[in-house]
Amino acid sequence: QVQLVESGGGLVQAGGSLRLSCEVSGTSFSINAMGWFRQPPGKQRELVATITSGGSTNYVNSVKGRFTISRDNAKNTVYLQMNSLKPEDTAVYYCNRVKITTSTSPLGYWGKGTQVTVSS
Fold first, then answer.
1. HSE (CB half, 13 Å, CA atoms) of 95?
2. How high is the pLDDT of residue 108?
3. Closest CA to 49 of 39, 61, 58
4. Quick one: pLDDT at residue 48?
5. Is 86 helix (H, G, I), strand (E, B) or coil?
6. Are 15 and 85 in contact (CB under 8 A)?
7. Apex CA 46: angle with CA 51 and CA 97, to 5°?
């Protein structure tokens, strides 16, 4: 059974930085494309960034130039470095395996997520 454990969230002032981590178990991590998603208060979950097994990355326009997704296959962990945070980045952040075709779809169950709150 695949398990996803997100960590690293917290309360930060606008302009600050956070680094999220997601440890993955129960699957061959290195062959999976991974994604970070977020769910702002009262809104639907949305895709933020993806990274393929080969290390190619993609970002939603609202975070380009501010967020960086990376992975460490030796640690079965995917990261999201978030800089220049804005109040609109406030959300619960989740990671998941993804299937990337003409669109990107999450695979399997979700973890508990990690709360990121950006104060103005």
1. 29
2. 82
3. 58
4. 98
5. coil
6. yes
7. 40
